[in-house]
């Protein structure tokens, strides 16, 4: 049986305007958020790259990862996914936004498992193009898996200025993963693992949550 080849992608091309500082480089616990994400991804993927923009790319070079810069600057997360799909050499990517400090290896391994299952079950022309977890009934497309075959629809959306993730996903064959399935298969609390930081108060909450977790583990 052939191994399913996947590249991990950290989406780190945003402007962090509401935070007022680069979210990826903020420390939550002992590591910067981007370092935590890379570490959690490592067990599930063949390689990891960082999707950035021309203004943020230099800040990530010390991490020693390939950097894919936006081809549609200023167009949001769709542009980062687009840059990644152009750069990778694997048929699948697993993406994570750079502001999710509580991602876990178990989550990425579970996504990898679902992707491999889809590869076994379906012929190429019927294969899903995206695997998207749900949290409280809401899709989480910034912590999900995408197939290279989704690239043409993505380019069409970007050229047309349709930048909502849902508009693109509606053009694809998507497998959604229920929150209950995620909990049953991995024990992961979706409300915790999908927590993201947009504003300074979110960052303070993340630091407090991390501190509580570390204290509870002592």
UniProtKB/TrEMBL annotation:
Its main location: cytoplasm. Its EC number is 2.7.7.77. InterPro entries: MobA-like_NTP_Trfase, Molybde_CF_guanTrfase, Nucleotide-diphossugar_trans. It is found in: Cytoplasm. Keywords: Cytoplasm, GTP-binding, Magnesium, Metal-binding, Molybdenum cofactor biosynthesis, Nucleotide-binding, Nucleotidyltransferase, Transferase. One of its GO terms (biological process) is Mo-molybdopterin cofactor biosynthetic process. GO terms for cellular component: cytoplasm. CDD domains: MobA (cd02503). Coiled coil: none annotated. Mg(2+) binds at residue 99. GTP binds at residues 11-13, 23, 70, 99. One of its GO terms (molecular function) is metal ion binding. It catalyses: Mo-molybdopterin + GTP + H(+) = Mo-molybdopterin guanine dinucleotide + diphosphate. The keyword GTP-binding applies. Pfam families: NTP_transf_3. Signal peptide: none annotated. Its cofactor is Mg(2+). Residues 8-164 form the MobA-like NTP transferase domain. Transfers a GMP moiety from GTP to Mo-molybdopterin (Mo-MPT) cofactor (Moco or molybdenum cofactor) to form Mo-molybdopterin guanine dinucleotide (Mo-MGD) cofactor. Belongs to the MobA family. The N-terminal domain determines nucleotide recognition and specific binding, while the C-terminal domain determines the specific binding to the target protein. This is Probable molybdenum cofactor guanylyltransferase. It comes from Paenibacillus azoreducens. The lineage of its organism: Bacteria, Bacillati, Bacillota, Bacilli, Bacillales. The gene is mobA.
């Amino acid at each position: 049986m052939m191994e399913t080849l996947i590249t991990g992608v950290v989406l780190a091309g945003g402007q962090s305007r509401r935070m007022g500082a680069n979210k990826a480089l903020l420390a939550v616990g002992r590591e910067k958020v981007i370092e935590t994400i890379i570490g959690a991804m490592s067990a599930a993927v063949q390689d990891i790259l960082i999707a950035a923009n021309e203004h943020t790319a230099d800040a990530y070079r010390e991490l020693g990862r390939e950097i894919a810069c936006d081809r549609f600057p200023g167009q949001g997360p769709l542009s980062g996914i687009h840059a990644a799909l152009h750069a990778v050499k694997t048929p699948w990517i697993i993406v994570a936004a750079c502001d999710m400090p509580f991602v876990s290896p178990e989550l990425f391994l579970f996504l990898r498992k679902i992707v491999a299952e889809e590869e076994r079950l379906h012929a190429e022309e019927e294969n899903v193009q995206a695997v998207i977890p749900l949290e409280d009934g809401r899709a989480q497309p910034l912590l999900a898996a995408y197939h290279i075959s989704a690239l043409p629809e993505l380019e069409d959306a970007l050229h047309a200025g349709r930048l909502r993730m849902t508009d693109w996903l509606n053009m694809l064959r998507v497998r959604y993963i229920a929150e209950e399935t995620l909990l049953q298969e991995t024990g992961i609390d979706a409300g915790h693992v999908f927590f993201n930081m947009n504003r300074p108060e979110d960052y303070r909450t993340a630091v407090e949550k991390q501190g509580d977790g570390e204290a509870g583990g002592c």
